[in-house]
Amino acid sequence: MYRHILIPTDGSELAERAVTHGLSLAKFVGAKVTVIIVEERPGVWFSFPETGAARAFAELTEQIKEYYASALDRMANAAKQAGVPCETIQVQDVQPYEAIITTATDRGCDLIVMASHGRSGLFAVVLGSVTNKVLTYTKVPVLVVQRGSSKN
């Protein structure tokens, strides 16, 4: 049924739940997975002069890179333990939903498994939702794992 599953993550506990669901499904159907993390940089639209703020920003950027690399390593190890072929991708400087859709299309993924906080109403409008944007713009089927979804 499915041969290549894309699993976006941000390294959060909820996203890891989606990874667990995606890996279980992949193992069951004999699919391979690609795990993608989109590196969101701190929202700074101007250059710092050479000050302590510039050093702090550089340190924060490095910590974010390390966090995302660590999250991808955890996901790759989980796939290996599950016996599921897995590739990991780290993308930066792109809107997360666009990176997810582009990766799914370019890599021939036939399912996206991703998490959603399940926010609705004003929270969803104000905060936006990567999951909602993926659902709106992709042609690839999406399996959404929400907060409160039971573990396998």
Question: Which helices and strands, and how do they pair?
Answer:
Elements: E1 4-9, H1 13-29, E2 32-39, H2 52-82, E3 86-92, H3 96-106, E4 111-116, H4 121-127, H5 130-137, E5 142-146
Parallel strand pairs: 1-2, 1-4, 2-3, 4-5
Q: Would you mind describing this structure in some detail?
A:
- The protein has 152 residues and is α/β, with parallel strands linked by helices.
- It is built from five helices and five strands.
- The model has no long low-confidence stretch (mean pLDDT 86).
- The longest helix is centred in the middle third of the chain and has 31 residues, at 52-82.
- The two termini are 20 Å apart.
- Helix content is 49%, strand content 21%.
- The protein has a single domain (4-146), classed as HUPs (Rossmann fold).
- A five-stranded parallel sheet has the order 3-2-1-4-5, with helices on both faces.
